[in-house]
Amino acid sequence: MPHQRTILVLTAAAMLLGAAPAQAATAFGNPDGAFVGGDDAANRLVVTTPSGGIVRVEALAGGIDAGEGCAPSGAARVDCTVGVLALETNLLGGDDELDVQGPIRVVAFGGAGADTLRGGALGDQLL
Question: Considering the entire predicted model, what is its pTM?
Answer without folding.
Answer: 0.79
